């Protein structure tokens, strides 16, 4: 029996226990990674403009603060290139540990960083350098986490398994928002919070590093990579192969993520928080608690999307999510403008539901698009490029559009464009649910991923897979 056949069979009881360990490890590790990433974005909208960019003036300082959120995304592809190369050569698990430690160290150091008032221009420079390290780590972490989950799973449960590391993103956002809300609630967002309170969530990361390190070290290597390594078939230059033969898949799949990222970073990138606090004058702690609510909704909609992806297919689930996003991009700001805090909750409910439906199936679909020997490079680089194009500067673009037009209509139009772009790319890709992921099936994996190739080259349709369960 080949590895590809083994991985499509039903799980034995021992395998189910292994699946639970993998789920726990990927969720916990990804939560820690993204807590670190989002705590920065949350603070960028609340305090960094005052602490690191104040001499530029209030408006420019806020733009510069949001720009540092985006600039880190430019380094995510580099992190994806490095982690993708070594993940395809030395293994998925090793890169998961490295990226976790790098992210945690950068976050902890931000918590100890002197401000502009203390060391002048060196403060924003150091802040930017540490944010770049966060970007490198985030670029490499995601690919390893999703492949550990998806490549361990049987074919009919890949959608659910792929949603596990995805759940770490809303959980990380929930933890970051909750921690900041706790600090602003206990310490009023005045002198004390600006002086030292904002540092606590960053410094707490050192504890999370230890927890995540222990958990990720305990996870077994992906069975797909273990088989590749056993045969000595690691690609020597996986990135070269990726861009030479599969560049079109990288572009299309990255554009799918653009449709999710632009809307997602209205919340996780801090723009909506800043808008609610600075424009609508809603209490800071109340806004952060609302963000916790949004993260909880995002968590459950992502989990639901994983199940839907197995039931109706990755592509169909995406299209439903994009349809919802297209409908809500204008009303979400109307709700905040007219409804105050209740309106903010309603807007976040709509945003988070759409985000989950276009995020939960992403891991399984990306893993099924690329051949086994270059899969880490493929999913990591595609995800990183999608994040750059869709989320990197979304908060800054939104802030510029708001400042230039004085209305959120321009921001909504921008979000609608990104959503339609993602939906269009989705229509160009074929659902590959059920395709074997092992190294014995690279020929099948290498063809039929787009709607422009013969259908017989693609993997088994969802309907056929469902009939085999």
From TrEMBL:
Q: Which domain of life is it from?
A: Bacteria
* Electron transport in keyword set: no
**Pfam families membership:** MFS_1
Residues covered by the Major facilitator superfamily (MFS) profile domain: 22-436
Keywords linked to the UniProt accession: Cell membrane, Membrane, Transmembrane, Transmembrane helix, Transport
Q: Which residues form the signal peptide?
A: none
Whether Oxidoreductase counts among this entry's keywords is: no
Its transmembrane ranges are 60-82, 94-110, 167-190, 196-215, 246-266, 286-309, 316-336, 342-367, 379-402, 408-429
Regarding the membrane, this protein is recorded as: Multi-pass membrane protein
Subcellular location as annotated: Cell membrane
Q: Name one GO cellular component term.
A: plasma membrane
A GO molecular function term, named singly, is: transmembrane transporter activity
Q: Which InterPro entries does this UniProt record tie to the protein?
A: MFS (IPR011701), MFS_dom (IPR020846), MFS_trans_sf (IPR036259), Sugar_transporter_CS (IPR005829)
Question: This chain belongs to which protein, by name?
Answer: Inner membrane metabolite transport protein YhjE
| Source organism per UniProt | Microbacterium azadirachtae
């Amino acid at each position: 029996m080949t590895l590809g056949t083994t991985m499509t069979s039903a799980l034995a009881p021992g395998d189910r226990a292994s699946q639970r360990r993998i789920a726990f490890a990927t969720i916990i590790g990804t939560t820690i990674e993204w807590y670190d990433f989002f705590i920065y974005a949350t603070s960028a909208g609340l305090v960094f403009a005052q602490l690191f960019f104040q001499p530029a003036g209030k408006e420019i300082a806020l733009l510069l603060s949001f720009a540092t959120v985006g600039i880190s995304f430019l380094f995510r592809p580099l992190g994806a290139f490095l982690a993708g190369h070594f993940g395809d050569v030395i293994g998925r698990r090793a890169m998961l540990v490295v990226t976790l430690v790098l992210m945690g160290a950068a976050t902890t150091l931000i918590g100890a960083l002197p401000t502009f008032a203390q060391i002048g221009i060196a403060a924003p420079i150091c802040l930017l350098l540490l944010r770049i390290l966060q970007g490198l780590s985030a670029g490499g972490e995601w690919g390893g986490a999703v492949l550990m989950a998806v490549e361990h799973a049987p074919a009919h449960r890949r959608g659910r398994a792929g949603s596990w590391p995805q759940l770490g993103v809303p959980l990380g956002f929930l933890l970051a928002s909750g921690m900041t809300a706790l600090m602003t609630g206990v310490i009023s967002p005045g002198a004390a919070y600006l002086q030292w309170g904002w540092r606590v969530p960053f410094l707490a990361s050192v504890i999370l590093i230890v927890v995540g390190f222990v958990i990720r070290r305990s996870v077994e290597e992906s069975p797909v990579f273990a088989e590749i390594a056993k045969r000595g078939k690691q690609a020597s230059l996986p990135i070269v192969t990726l861009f030479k033969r599969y560049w079109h898949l990288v572009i299309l799949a990255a554009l799918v993520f653009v449709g999710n990222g632009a809307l997602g970073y209205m919340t996780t990138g801090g723009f909506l928080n800043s808008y609610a606090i600075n424009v609508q004058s809603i209490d800071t702690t109340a806004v952060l608690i609302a963000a916790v609510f949004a993260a909880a909704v995002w968590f459950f909609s992502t989990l639901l999307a994983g199940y839907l992806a197995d039931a109706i297919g990755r592509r169909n689930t995406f299209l439903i999510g994009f349809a919802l996003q297209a409908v809500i991009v204008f009303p979400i700001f109307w709700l905040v403008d007219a409804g105050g805090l209740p309106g903010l909750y309603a807007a976040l409910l709509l945003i988070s539901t759409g985000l989950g439906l276009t995020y939960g199936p992403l891991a399984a679909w990306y893993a099924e698009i690329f051949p086994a020997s270059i899969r880490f490079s493929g999913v990591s680089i595609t995800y990183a490029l999608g994040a750059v194009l869709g989320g990197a500067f979304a908060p800054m673009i939104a802030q510029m559009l708001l400042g230039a037009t004085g209305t959120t209509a321009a921001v909504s139009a921008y979000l609608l464009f990104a959503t339609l772009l993602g939906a269009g790319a989705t229509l160009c890709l074929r659902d590959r649910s059920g395709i074997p992921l092992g190294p014995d099936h690279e020929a099948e994996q290498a063809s039929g991923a787009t709607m422009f190739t013969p259908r017989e080259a693609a993997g088994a349709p969802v309907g056929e897979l469902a009939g085999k369960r």
